[in-house]
Every structure is written in C-alpha cells, then in structure tokens.
C-alpha cells in the first residue's frame, strides 16, 4: 500500500508487534485493513532500544502468529534480531503498512471513525489501537531538583556504556530494564541501583532445564487473568550475584533530588555522575476521542474490546493476560480482536436485500 | 541430612509448589535442584508413580495409556510438540506398574523429570486433591524414596 486510503474497513494504529499480529489475522480473514505507524520504518521502537538489549523470552516464545522466530528456539534474541524479524514479518505477509503516518487524532464519526494523520484523513469502520505498551519516557517529578551538571538519561535514550561518563551511575528503578542496564554498566562503572519498595519476585530464566516461559505456557499460566497489582517478576536477574561480588551497590527508594545529590528514603545522600531513569513510560491518550477515555485519561476497554463499538486495543500491559504486551504472546489477543472485527465486518457488509441469494 | 534426603526434600518442595500452582515458588525452589546429582528425579518419579496408581487403581492397558497421553497433549495450550508421546506412554506405564519400563532408564533425566512434573500436576488435579491430600502424597513419596 503506498497511499492513505480515504476509507477502509479497519485501521490498525501502530505497526509494531501488536499491530502486525492484528494485520496478519485480518489478512487471513480477508478483511481489508491499513496499518498506520508513526515511525519511519517497521521496528523503529525496537531499533532505538539499547545496544545489548536481550529479550527475556527465548526465540521459541518470541514469534508472532504464522512465523516462528528464526534460529535456535533456546536462543534469546537481541533487539536487532527483533527488528529484522518484524520487518521480515511485514514483508512476508504483505501487510499494508504505511510508515511516517502518525495518527494525530481519532474521533467517532457516525458508525465509524475518522483518523487524522500526518498525511491526511482516513475513515475506518473499525479501529485497532496498537500503539504499544511504551509511550513517552516517565521521569519522577523530583528529577527537576537535580543539578543540570548531573548527566541524566532515561532508559529509552540509553545505548551502551560508552555513552555514560566515568564515575558513579545511579540507576533509579529496578525492573527488568534497570537491572539489565545495571548489570551491563557494572563492568565499566561504579553502579548504584535504587530499588523500589515493591519487591519484584526474581525468577530464574531456566527452570528444571526449560525456559521459564516454556513452563508458563505448558501450565497455562500465560493465558490466565492477571492481578494488575501484582509486581512484575524480574527474569534472569544478575544483580544479586553482582551485588554479592561487590560490583553493584543496591539502595532503597530514591525520594528526592537536591542539586548534585539524590536522597534515599533512609537518609543516605548519593552524588552521581550520571542518573539513568529506569522509571518506565506513560502514554498520552489525549489523541483519542474523549468518549473512549475514562476519568483518568485511560482507554475504556474490557480485555481489549473498546467501550465504543468498533474500537479495540492491543498490546496494553496486562490487558488480558501476562502475555498481552509480550511479542510472543500478543498474537492470542490479536486473534481474538480480529475475530470480533471479522464478525462485525461480515454483519455490516451483508446486504439485507441479498439475503437468500447466492454469494 | 544426607544427600539423598536433601535432594528428595528439594524435589518435593518444587513439586509441592507446582501442585499448589504457586508458579513463582515452583520456579524459585527449582534453583535448589541439582541436575547432576545421583538421585536427581527420584523423588518426583516416586510421587508421579503414586499419583498414577491412585488415578488408575485398576491399572491401564497400553491403549488406555495411549489415550490418556493423547488427552494430556491435546489439553496443552502450547508446547505439546516438545513432548514425545511414546516417551510419555513409557513413563506412565512405568509409574503404573512400578519398576522401570524399557527405554526409560536411558533417557535424559531432565526430560523425564519435566514430563513427570507436568503429568503429576494433571493426575493430582484429576484426583481432586486439595492441600491436605497433596501433602500426604508428597510425604508418602518422601518415605518411598528414602526406603
């Protein structure tokens, strides 16, 4: 597809793993769609992640529907492999992706939706919002109190150790990303990892000789509803061994920044050379029709089925299961959404006057 | 505590967490297992055998075992292709009849313990065992392993 259609049965907003999975299932169902992505190429979000980023799902559990992730199933892909895979996926299934087409607003328009994009408007009968689990970098409010002389960056801007000046690096946030980066920097820098009050259960990458996700898949854990309040486990964490070896120091929650110092909850003051915010993302949903949002500005949906008819979501964190935002598991949600779209599409495209006539 | 006893205890802790469907506990406790230990897999095998014999108190024919394995594999949402049906049938036959079925003793102990863990969970669910019954099963497996 080379140009934005004026009308289309289904518009998928986002051509990352979630959007591509939706596109695949819609294609299989014969439902015409367009995938609109803000990036300049498929996989751009992954391409921007740090150089050594490795998935915590092995290749066996990192594939989208219809195309296994290439290579040894026990291998843990790096980000460049993910980029290549996503591009191959879009090409192989000839998915109608339009890059550089950021959707600026989405509004209900009669029985359908009007999308305003950077290349004009498009009307769709149904829409899938698959813009991903990551949005804009989220940084604590107290970060404003930090002296501009202290170098800071968010994990979304981190590329590798060479980017970080020598000295003490404080990583604020001990989720999977913070811990992976802390482990990498421990080889070249003095690392302090600030851990939140919430204890994330550490899980080994390998359990009784199999990848953790193998067990979760076999046991059906990946398809179970998930408690939104339960902390995310940290998988294959090297921080404990590095801390025991004296190569990483862990402290409690950072609560404030005063000039060149960060304040830990227990009163300790740390003077970092660099601060890396591993504090997650926030998504700005203001481009959606206000009727699609709740009082907190979050999408109104039930397991991905939007509150407004003909609207759907994919790839949201824990949207339906633990796998909803994971590359190897989003396909299940995508199949479900595509099935709902297909049913609605066939209902609206069946002409009452043609009932009983051969198709 | 002897090596055999501690290995037994570690394995049954892992199995106990699995039976309770405490996935985090199952994964975390698994780090205490020693896949190179001489007694690796014995305790889980004992528990598996007990569960199989209770589930099939009259025994089972080869056809019934094959049907059971088919049903088990068909119930999996994913990774069924990672299990060898013939191997599973041999494990079930061994568990039902005690002793070692031909071929089982030569197979990778890791593969065997993986299969037995998953099958034991299924058997225990089919038996309708609650926490008390699960504890009793594990206790009897521990006794059987130490004998």
Automatic annotation (TrEMBL), chain A:
It comes from Streptomyces atroolivaceus. Its EC number is 1.14.13.-. GO terms for molecular function: monooxygenase activity. InterPro entries: Auxin_biosynth/cation_transpt (IPR050982), FAD/NAD-bd_sf (IPR036188). This is Flavin-containing monooxygenase. It is an enzyme of class 1 (oxidoreductase). Signal peptide: none annotated. Gene3D superfamilies: FAD/NAD(P)-binding domain.
Automatic annotation (TrEMBL), chain B:
This is Uncharacterized protein.
């Amino acid at each position: 597809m080379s140009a934005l259609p004026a009308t289309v049965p289904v518009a998928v907003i986002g051509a990352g793993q979630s959007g591509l999975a939706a596109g695949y299932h819609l294609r299989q169902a014969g439902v015409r769609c367009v995938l609109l992505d803000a990036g300049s190429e498929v996989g751009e979000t992954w391409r921007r992640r740090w150089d050594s980023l490795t998935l915590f799902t092995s290749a066996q559990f990192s594939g989208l529907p219809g195309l296994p992730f290439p290579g040894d199933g026990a291998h843990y892909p790096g980000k460049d492999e993910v980029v290549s895979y996503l591009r191959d996926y879009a090409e192989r299934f000839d998915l109608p992706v339009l890059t550089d087409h950021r959707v600026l607003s989405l509004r209900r328009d009669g029985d359908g939706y009007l999308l305003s994009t950077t290349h004009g408007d498009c009307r769709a009968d149904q829409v899938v919002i698959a813009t991903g689990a990551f949005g804009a970098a989220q940084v604590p409010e107290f970060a404003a109190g930090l002296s501009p002389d202290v170098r800071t960056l968010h994990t979304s801007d981190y590329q590798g150790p060479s980017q970080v000046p020598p000295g003490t690096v404080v990583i604020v946030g001990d989720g999977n990303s913070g811990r992976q980066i802390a482990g990498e920097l421990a080889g070249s820098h003095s690392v302090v990892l600030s851990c939140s009050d919430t204890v994330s259960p550490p899980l080994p990458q390998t359990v009784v000789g199999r990848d953790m996700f193998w067990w979760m898949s076999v046991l059906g854990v990946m398809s179970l509803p998930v408690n939104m309040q339960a902390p995310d486990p940290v998988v294959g964490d090297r921080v404990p061994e590095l801390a025991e070896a004296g190569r990483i120091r862990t402290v409690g929650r950072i609560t404030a920044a005063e000039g060149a110092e960060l304040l830990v909850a227990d009163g300790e003051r740390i003077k970092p050379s660099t601060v890396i915010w591993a504090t997650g993302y926030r998504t700005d949903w203001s481009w959606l029709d206000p009727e699609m949002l709740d009082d907190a500005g979050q999408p109104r949906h039930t397991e991905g089925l939007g509150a407004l008819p003909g609207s759907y979501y994919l790839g949201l964190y824990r949207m339906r299961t633990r796998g909803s935002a994971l590359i190897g598991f989003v396909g299940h949600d995508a199949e479900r959404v595509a099935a709902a779209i297909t049913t609605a599409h066939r209902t609206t495209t069946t002409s009452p006057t043609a009932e009983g006539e051969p198709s | 505590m002897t090596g055999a006893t501690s290995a037994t205890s570690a394995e049954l802790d892992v199995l106990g967490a699995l039976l309770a469907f405490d996935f985090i506990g199952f994964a975390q406790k698994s780090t205490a297992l020693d896949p190179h230990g001489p007694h690796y897999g014995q305790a889980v095998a004992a528990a598996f055998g007990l569960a199989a014999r209770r589930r099939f108190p009259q025994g089972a024919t080869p056809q019934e075992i094959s049907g059971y394995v088919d049903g088990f594999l068909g119930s999996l949402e994913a990774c069924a292709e990672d299990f060898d049906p013939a191997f599973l049938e041999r494990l079930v036959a061994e568990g039902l009849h005690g002793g070692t079925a031909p071929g089982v003793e030569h197979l990778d102990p890791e593969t065997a313990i993986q299969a037995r863990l998953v099958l034991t969970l299924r058997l225990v669910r089919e038996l309708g065992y609650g926490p008390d019954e699960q504890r009793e099963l594990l206790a009897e497996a521990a006794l059987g392993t130490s004998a």
